[in-house]
């Protein structure tokens, strides 16, 4: 039988290696892992239980530094209460379940809200593999709109391949392009629709590397740039002035034989920052908002957390 910590470390490793990936899924996976851990550990006292779950939360938080969905999910699950061990256990499990449910509902709702902006005959460009951006695209298509999608490969991990397979499965006409072809096709595009790893207090977007260059091309071509982001992708830390850490991944992801070269190094940031002025709208589960409203979303949705952090 696997021990609870071994199982949790296994999930953490699958998140780190990107076997489990995509900001929303990472958050849900972390919530689920914490729940499983809390339900299966043996603890002699509430204090011991608290210490063990805090340790487990730390392990999960250290897997992917950028995705705020992960830290928000962990924080929400860790708000458990209980005067005794069993009450604490079930409160934590309840928090995890309601986070997962909230996340799934949000993705669906964003699909409905965002799809209203997509018109019959539109061409949509998407980058990487965002379940939330795809929810908008699929909802528009399912409502009978004749749409076409252009998907980037998204080097170095090629998440674009996941995107085109999903689109193909749904029967949506799709064209795959290399990342550097975005400028060439942008004049055919009606909307760029991308997901989000983080939305900052000033409405800027942290998303898969290459997003910022796509936003620049869209801005120059006067193409609408839409972000699909649940409210738990908004970062409370950025209100407190903190910068979003950008995850640097291994050189081998870009060039597997790098160790054979003596004078070359690889720089492999996983994400980049798109300034809010290039974003037309952020579709959240509470509405389609201008990026400038992000501060209010954080205050409204995650305000309680901010208060607690200040204590
Ligand atoms: P959903 C991904 O990160 C991409 O940056 C994508 O845009 C973002 O998560 C959001 O994905 P990675 O895990 O939450 O591939 O919309 O590094 O599914």
TrEMBL record:
<keyword id="KW-0413">Isomerase</keyword>
<dbReference type="GO" id="GO:0043917">
    <property type="term" value="F:ribose 1,5-bisphosphate isomerase activity"/>
</dbReference>
<comment type="similarity">
    <text>Belongs to the eIF-2B alpha/beta/delta subunits family. R15P isomerase subfamily.</text>
</comment>
<dbReference type="InterPro" id="IPR000649">
    <property type="entry name" value="IF-2B-related"/>
</dbReference>
<dbReference type="InterPro" id="IPR011559">
    <property type="entry name" value="Initiation_fac_2B_a/b/d"/>
</dbReference>
<feature type="binding site">
    <location>
        <position position="64"/>
    </location>
    <ligand>
        <name>substrate</name>
    </ligand>
</feature>
<feature type="active site" description="Proton acceptor">
    <location>
        <position position="128"/>
    </location>
</feature>
<feature type="binding site">
    <location>
        <position position="233"/>
    </location>
    <ligand>
        <name>substrate</name>
    </ligand>
</feature>
<comment type="function">
    <text>Catalyzes the isomerization of ribose 1,5-bisphosphate (R15P) to ribulose 1,5-bisphosphate (RuBP), the CO(2) acceptor and substrate for RubisCO. Functions in an archaeal AMP degradation pathway, together with AMP phosphorylase and RubisCO.</text>
</comment>
<feature type="active site" description="Proton donor">
    <location>
        <position position="197"/>
    </location>
</feature>
<protein>
    <recommendedName>
        <fullName>Ribose 1,5-bisphosphate isomerase</fullName>
        <ecNumber>5.3.1.29</ecNumber>
    </recommendedName>
</protein>
<keyword id="KW-0119">Carbohydrate metabolism</keyword>
<dbReference type="Pfam" id="PF01008">
    <property type="entry name" value="IF-2B"/>
</dbReference>
<feature type="binding site">
    <location>
        <begin position="21"/>
        <end position="24"/>
    </location>
    <ligand>
        <name>substrate</name>
    </ligand>
</feature>
<dbReference type="InterPro" id="IPR005250">
    <property type="entry name" value="R15Pi"/>
</dbReference>
<feature type="binding site">
    <location>
        <begin position="207"/>
        <end position="208"/>
    </location>
    <ligand>
        <name>substrate</name>
    </ligand>
</feature>
<dbReference type="InterPro" id="IPR027363">
    <property type="entry name" value="M1Pi_N"/>
</dbReference>
<dbReference type="InterPro" id="IPR042529">
    <property type="entry name" value="IF_2B-like_C"/>
</dbReference>
<dbReference type="InterPro" id="IPR037171">
    <property type="entry name" value="NagB/RpiA_transferase-like"/>
</dbReference>
